[in-house]
Amino acid sequence: MSGGRELILARIRAAVTGAPDVEVTRAYRTTRDLPGAVELFAERVADYRAAVRVVAEEETAATITTALAGRGAVRVVVPAGLPPEWTPPEPVADDPPLSAAELDAVDGVITGCAVAIAETGTIVLDAGPGQGRRALTLVPDYHLCVVRADQIVADVPDAVGRLDPARPLTWISGPSATSDIELNRVEGVHGPRVLEVIVVR
């Protein structure tokens, strides 16, 4: 088996010997200004059956409190680095790391994000400050995510340009959902059943 592989690679090397180097021009667009990005992002997030609210900076803490109260969420996981003003009164710390059973028993999790994409309504987490490890947003049934307006980019190329590919990236487009063979939608199979997003202008 390995002999066949080496034979094929040797033939390829022989065929390209002496061929000139070709410079491949990469003219991909990586940034784009999109007027109304906040509104488009909110609209696309809502299309995924996620609750979304757009608020002013000074309304953020009160909106978080209202959102958590609306879900009856008292025991909420708070990752390290979440801004203090976003932290609920009785936060559940992930230090030492909570087990899957402990995460399943909490009322939800609140995080920030690394970047958000207007055209797709996607939120990207990279385990940075205020986001925590991936399990925090996959196991609890409720995820409240706070997105700052300056984190919203036009589309996927813009987002990729801001992200570090060496970090663990989680791309979230609405609550976890899948469909069976008869196209019956089932939510909460491999992530939170409920996603709520607060966009801060």
Automatic annotation (TrEMBL):
User: What InterPro entries does the record tag this protein with?
Assistant: FTHF_cligase-like_sf, LUD_dom, NagB/RpiA_transferase-like
Pfam families per record = LUD_dom
Q: Tell me which residues make up the LUD domain.
A: 103-200
Q: What is this protein called?
A: LUD domain-containing protein
Species per Swiss-Prot/TrEMBL record = Streptosporangium pseudovulgare
Classification lineage: Bacteria, Bacillati, Actinomycetota, Actinomycetes, Streptosporangiales
